[in-house]
Write a structure and sequence with these properties.
With about 270 residues, the chain is α+β, with helices and mostly antiparallel strands. The chain has helices at about 1-25, 35-40, 50-130, and strands spanning about 135-140, 145-150, 155, 160-165, 175, 180-195, 195-205, 210-215, 220-235, 240-245, 250, 260-265. A 5-stranded antiparallel sheet has the order 4-1-12-6-9, with no helix packed on it. Strands 3, 5, 7, 8 and 10 form a 5-stranded antiparallel sheet that branches. The structure holds 2-acetamido-2-deoxy-beta-D-glucopyranose. 2-acetamido-2-deoxy-beta-D-glucopyranose (NAG) binds near residues 140, 160, 254 and 255. It is found in: Secreted.
Length: about 270
């Protein structure tokens, strides 16, 4: 290439000389051109026009190649910027997706927390709405007339069961035993036939007296004592009725003396 350029330069300078020599030739034929002699001296076989043509072709070819390369470069540049744009867009999308994922994870965590809280609430509600045990009883004292205490107090055994749902009352001991913590109501009505004497009735909770009623009469006819108490009981608390020493009560098939109780609300 460098050789070709040097040759080209040389050729141009020679062409100029040749033109000048032609003009000179027209005027003075006697003057012969030194340039022709120089050409002959440099390269005796050189076909100048052919070389020129070849060089021109080469230049044209190089121009075409250059244009083609430039075009290709342009296309590549365009492609490159397109790829860059798409990459940026993808990165933006990835960031947005990451944010959405984070938001969803946060939501999921919140939902999980609320679910756990709801489960706890449901558990508590289930405990609350656990069906209350059914507890209610009524019993008559006896079917055989007078019941007497003698020299010591007497725990009354109301042996004639009328109702005993939940079996919390015992017709063999006369004691009610609380099956659950709760508020209960107990009541009684007892009868005596009083001819110048006292009748008396006491209610006990775990051996501790809660109530004592008495009556004196002398007409030899039936007298009744009746009352009731609302009691808060723990599981296993016992309630019963008692008469002091030297007292008695009466009952027969009419159910003159009865003891009743039931659970109002569990606690
Ligand atoms: C007394 O109670 C019994 C149940 O223990 C019942 O069968 C009877 O009819 C009652 N008596 C009266 C007179 O109501």
């Amino acid at each position: 290439m460098r050789a070709a350029i040097s040759l080209l330069v040389l050729l141009f300078s020679m062409c100029g000389a040749q033109t000048r020599s032609t003009q000179i030739e027209v005027q003075t034929e006697s003057q012969s051109t030194g340039a022709a002699a120089a050409v002959a001296e440099v390269s005796p076989q050189l076909d100048v026009s052919a070389e020129l043509k070849e060089l021109r072709d080469m230049v044209v070819e190089l121009r075409v190649t250059l244009r083609y390369t430039q075009d290709e470069l342009k296309v590549m540049k365009a492609e490159n910027s397109d790829v860059k744009e798409r990459l940026v867009a993808s990165e933006t999308k990835v960031k947005a997706l990451e944010m959405v994922t984070a938001a969803q994870e946060a939501k999921l965590t919140a939902v999980k927390t609320r679910l756990a809280a709801t489960e706890t609430e449901v558990d508590n509600l289930e405990k609350e709405i656990k069906p209350a045990p059914k507890v209610a009883f009524s019993a008559g004292l006896t079917n055989s007339g007078f019941i007497e205490s003698g020299n010591t107090e007497l725990n009354l055994v109301f042996s004639r069961i009328i109702t005993n749902v939940g079996q919390a009352y015992s017709s063999t001991t006369g004691f009610f035993t609380a099956p659950v913590r709760g508020v209960y109501y107990f009541r009684f009505t007892v009868m005596e036939v009083l001819s110048s004497r006292y009748m008396e009735i006491q209610m006990f909770k775990n051996g501790q007296q809660l109530m004592e009623l008495y009556e004196y009469d002398s007409d030899g006819k039936a007298t009744y004592l009746s009352s009731g108490l609302t009691l808060q009981l723990e599981v296993g608390d016992e309630v019963n009725l008692r008469i002091p020493p030297g007292h008695r009560l009466y009952d027969d098939s009419n159910n003159d003396s009865t003891f009743s109780g039931f659970l109002l609300v569990p606690l």
